[in-house]
Design goal:
Blueprint (H helix, E strand, L loop, with lengths): L1 H26 L3 H19 L9 H26 L7 H20 L5 H27 L7 H26 L5 H24 L4 H5 L23 H12 L11 H7 L4 H10 L6 H17 L9 H7 L5 H12 L3 H6 L5
């Protein structure tokens, strides 16, 4: 049994080292590469902490390995933000929650097994918090699958959600259930090996397009109108781009609530993968919702400035340009213009 544990641990650690070296090689100048390498180190710490020799090692050694392991779920959440969100700002409250989780778990390790209120405060509550973070990791990775225009990032979303979500579930489960049987840990470590192997294969498939994963330059709606994305006359894709602009501007397809890139592709008689590539590589948008919002916000701003429509409620304009709710419209409009629609309208001179 011990030989099996050493074998599975070695295989898992080898794949984690490969993952760390891969991301450092292709993203060494980016925060993402450093975060992924540190994530691999944290997982290695979890694996080493399960080895029998650690029980006889100095206390501080076991503490450091365990601290790396408990940091893994929170670190994965941060990685998910930077990998799949084009504007990955993290709310200060989230940082406080992460710090609180790590502090409570570290305190629990120092104090040893707890009972009663101590157990709920130092062990159960932090695990529940991190379980919520883990669920949000999977949700974030899957949520943007339909609107993501960066093809290598799209290809990583499902493998990332499956593998990383499962790994965090393994780590949380091993602490949450307080399992001690060695054969169960062997199954855990073997599963981590398979998940990391699967993710490494998926990552290697997109390594040639790695710059697209971290190029977060997007068109700002407050300074660039939708039609500015037109390509030059010499570009061979110009007829296709013009067809897309025509459908969006002349037919006002953007005002259709819940418009998907698949529906737009059908409207312009184009394969969806080709439409994604055109909007991403020619018009420089990384997300379909960003592209769609340019038309909606531009139309809404025009109507808010129109004295003839000053009597219309803002909610009516929001619905007319395609938003499903006033709250989502207010958020998108403020991101574009820096003020709410009501303030924007009040600053418009009335004739």
């Amino acid at each position: 049994m011990q030989l099996i544990q050493y074998a599975t641990s070695f295989m898992a650690i080898s794949q984690l080292l490969f993952m760390a070296l891969f991301y450092l090689a292709y993203f060494r100048r980016q925060l993402l590469g450093k975060l992924m390498a540190f994530y691999a180190v944290c997982l290695i710490g979890y694996i080493l902490a399960t080895l029998p020799e650690v029980d006889n090692a100095p206390w501080i050694f076991d503490f450091v390995l365990s601290l790396l392991a408990i940091t893994t779920p929170a670190l994965l959440w941060v990685i998910t933000r930077y990998l799949f969100e084009d504007e990955p700002q993290v709310d200060p409250l989230v940082w406080i929650t992460i710090a609180l989780y790590i502090t409570l778990r570290a305190f629990a390790m120092v104090m040893g097994p707890q009972e009663g209120v101590g157990y709920w405060l130092h062990s159960f509550l932090p695990q529940v918090i991190m379980l919520g973070f883990a669920c949000h990791v999977v949700y974030t990775a899957v949520r943007g699958l339909g609107s993501d225009l960066v093809e290598p990032r799209r290809q990583l979303r499902v493998p990332f959600a499956i593998t990383m979500g499962s790994i965090v579930a393994i780590i949380l489960g091993s602490y949450f259930l307080n399992l001690t049987d060695r054969w169960i840990y062997n199954v855990y470590i073997g599963a981590i090996f398979l998940f990391i192997l699967f993710f490494n294969l998926a990552s290697f498939r997109v390594h040639r397009d790695s710059p697209q994963l971290i190029d977060t330059v997007v068109i700002q709606p407050s300074v660039v109108p939708p039609h500015s994305g037109r390509v030059s006359e010499k570009d061979k894709d110009k007829p296709l781009i013009d067809r897309i602009h025509s459908v969006m501007e002349n037919d006002r397809l953007f005002a259709q609530p819940g418009l998907t890139i698949g529906q737009l592709a059908a409207s312009v008689s184009m394969q969806e993968y080709r439409l994604r590539r055109l909007i991403n590589q020619k018009l420089h948008y990384r997300n379909f919702n960003q592209y769609l919002n340019q038309y909606r916000i531009a139309e809404a701003a025009r109507r808010l400035q129109d004295p003839a429509e000053s009597h219309l409620p803002i909610s009516t304009i929001a619905l007319d340009v395609g938003y499903a709710s006033l709250s989502s419209f207010n958020k998108a409009f403020k991101e574009a213009h820096g003020v709410t629609p009501s303030i924007f309208r009040s600053r418009t001179p009335q004739q």
